[in-house]
Amino acid sequence: MKKNQLLYVFATLVIGVALFFSCQKAEVVNGEQELKLKSASNCSVCVPNWMDSKASYSGWIKFNSTNAVPSTFLDVWNDNAQVHYTVYRTSGTFTEVRVNGIMVISGDAISTYSWAVALNPGWKACDQIITSIELRGVSGGTGRTNNPSFTYYLREKCVGCTESFNYTDNGNKTYTFTYTPAEDLVDQPVAFTFAQGVVVTGLGEEWVTAGNTRQKTMSFTKCMPVVWTLSLQANCSGNSSQSNVWTDFKVNNVSKKGELSNITQTCP
User: Fold this and answer.
1) Closest of 53, 49, 52 to residue 39, by C-alpha
2) Distances (CA, A) of 180 to 63, 189, 220
3) Of 2.60.40, 1.10.10, 3.40.30, 2.40.128, which CATH number belongs to 9-153?
4) Dist. CA 163–CA 165, nearest whole Å
5) What percent of the chain has pLDDT over 90?
6) What does the pLDDT average to over 217-221?
């Protein structure tokens, strides 16, 4: 059973440091509800490296609950023992940070502050971390922000995997294909093979048609599944009651189909 992780900042704060944050930022989302949904949507998928669990938020904190504090971001990620936070402004400063109502730093104007909070032993992926953050002494506004509450869903690190490929028949002639590599792969030729005349929907314009195949050069991250959901419409021009629509999937010219059956559709 999943347990909500309780956040006790006063017992676990790591010394914050005032420094300009220069690491590459993850995709930024706006609003507490959106970032909660984003965090929850992929929490069950393991990450190759702990930093890959990082989410970056903008528009998350406001002056007097109305106007968003400009150029202000929050990064959150976890490792096996802690949840890590960095609040920073790309333009402007603040002098005080309060976490769950507790003042954790107050003093000179800074643009970046980082801290970490210990996790309870036995935590699991998708356990929730709930916290609130308030800034004071904020330049460019009233000097004090609201105190928004955030829900972050923990991620687990991949501990190893075997290469796999499979598909799921979703009904309505749509199919979900999933490929998981056992190692990092860079600039590999990838090819789906379909039966002649099949109408394929769901692959982007970057996929090149070559005969009965759709091809693209791709890079993959170890243990990170890649998913395609495709709509396939058979070419029922013959007299057969069944028609193949999909027959193979290759990476670097090596078939990953294994013992999977061809996908067929019934012809009228």
Assistant:
1) 53
2) 45, 15, 8
3) 2.60.40
4) 7
5) 51
6) 95
Query: d(Cα 33, Cα 37) in Å, to the nearest integer?
Result: 6
Quote the pLDDT of residue 66: 66
C-alpha span between 154 and 5 (Å, rounded): 10
Domain 164-266 listed as CATH 1.10.443 = no
What does the domain layout of the chain look like in residue ranges? 9-153, 164-266
**pLDDT surpassing 70 at residue 48:** yes
pTM listed for this prediction: 0.52
Chain-centroid distance of CA 246 in Å reads 29
> In this structure, are residues 234 and 268 in contact, taking their beta carbons and an 8 Å threshold?
no
**CA-based end-to-end distance of the chain:** 49
Q: Tokens 């970057």 appear where?
A: 206
Residue 163 token pair: 């290469």
pLDDT at 15 over 70: no
DSSP H stretches of helix in the chain: 9-12, 32-41
pLDDT exceeds 80 at position 34: no
Phi, psi of 12 (to 5 degrees): -135, 10
Residue 118: is it exposed, middle or buried by C-beta count within 10 angstroms (0-12/13-18/19+)? middle
> 182-196, pLDDT tens digit by residue?
888 999 999 999 999
For residues 51 and 77, is the Cβ–Cβ distance under 8 A?
A: yes
Per DSSP, 236 falls in state -
Is the four-CA dihedral 210, 214, 216, 221 of positive or negative sign? Answer: negative
Q: pLDDT at residue 20 above 50?
A: no
| Fold agreement between 9-153 and 164-266 | yes
Amino acid at 21: F
